[in-house]
Write a structure and sequence with these properties.
Elements: E1 2-9, E2 15-22, H1 25-34, E3 38-44, H2 52-62, H3 67-82, H4 87-97, H5 101-115, H6 120-124, H7 133-145, H8 148-205, H9 211-247, H10 249-261, H11 265-286, H12 291-301, H13 305-319
Antiparallel strand pairs: 1-2, 1-3
Helix pairs in contact: 3-4, 3-8, 4-5, 7-8, 8-9, 8-11, 9-10, 10-11, 11-12, 12-13
Length: 324
């Protein structure tokens, strides 16, 4: 099926816009009429003409679905289902209210798939970039147990708490990072512009200088003459670091191990991972997800290979009959 963007009139003559999933334009028009909506214009969303630059900007800026968007959608869907409203009308309401174009388009496809008889989990599984395995497994458990609104409420609570935690961590790290950057910049400017001017005074004195002063002058001369080389080496080091820690399994393992052993930050990182593990596992178990399946999901949530392997080993022990 294709996704179509439409402009239509409702029963009161008000203009509405939205997305609909249908095999063709005629089918899309028929579906809209069945919903008492009278289409004025229907265009296939994927075939909208746009320049390469505008497409890139639109994808990077306007078509990004944040965790907050998903959290709000989850909370609203939980509220609607909890009030007794059927799933398809609930998705229709949220689709119309969604301000994010990509989320609106995704909800249109999910709604149509649910309308065709598929489960909510099956519809959401086509959008792994929006709904991760953790989310899907909880929704699946909620559908199986008939408590989908409660599960969605727990998901919304979990997402909001997680966002609050990450916001606190970022706020705590923001000040030292800014101070480090400012301090490094000031030191670089002093060494490249201020120190060379003072050096001339020592040269005119024709006296033997202390070793520390000689080293300081040498470093200043080097920075002034080869600052461009330092920038190139710094950029190369960052590129190699990113490739090593993100491009290879061994590099990821090494970096995850280092992150746990860095003084102070290692303990902070470990506690963050443990908190994420505990909260996620509790949420999954409360939603009816089996323990072994929940531990497999949580293994990928902690975002650390070393801790993930420890969780995987614990899961195997539980599978063999040992206690958690």
């Amino acid at each position: 099926m294709s996704v179509f963007e439409y402009v239509a009139l409702d029963e009161k003559g008000h203009q509405i816009k939205g997305f609909i999933d249908a095999p063709g334009v005629a089918a899309a028009r028929q579906k809209l009429r069945e919903e008492n909506v009278y289409p004025v214009e229907i265009n296939q969303a994927e075939n909208k003409k746009e320049t390469a630059l505008s497409g890139i900007l639109k994808f990077n800026i306007w078509q990004k679905i944040s965790a907050a968007d998903v959290s709000i959608f989850t909370r609203q869907l939980s509220t609607l289902l909890g009030s007794g409203m059927p799933l398809v009308p609930s998705l229709s309401i949220l689709m119309k209210q969604a301000k994010n174009p990509l989320l609106k388009k995704s909800l249109a496809q999910i709604r149509e798939q649910v309308n065709e008889g598929k489960s909510l989990t099956e519809g959401m599984s086509n959008f792994p970039q929006i709904f991760p395995p953790f989310y899907l497994n909880m929704v699946r458990a909620g559908e199986a147990s008939g408590t989908i609104n409660l599960v969605l409420e727990r998901l919304a609570d979990f997402s909001e708490n997680h966002q609050a935690l990450m916001s606190k961590i970022k706020s705590a790290m923001y000040y030292p990072i800014v101070m480090l950057f400012v301090g490094s910049t000031v030191l670089f400017l002093l060494m490249t512009f201020v120190v060379p001017k003072i050096t001339g005074i020592f040269t005119d004195m024709h006296q033997t200088l202390p070793l520390i002063t000689i080293i300081l002058i040498a470093v200043s001369d080097f920075l002034k003459s080869f600052w461009w080389l330092i920038l190139i080496l710094l950029a190369a080091a960052i590129a190699v670091f990113k490739y090593t820690t993100a491009g290879t399994e061994a590099g990821k393992r090494m970096w995850d191990n280092v992150k746990l052993k860095i003084p102070v930050w290692g303990q902070v990182n470990l506690k963050i991972s443990i908190a994420r593990f505990s909260r996620t596992l509790a949420t999954l178990l409360q939603s009816g997800v089996p323990l072994l399946q929940a531990m497999e999901i949580v293994r990928n949530v902690v975002n650390n290979i070393i801790i993930g392997e420890a969780i995987s080993k614990a899961g195997k022990d539980v599978e063999e009959g040992k206690g958690l």
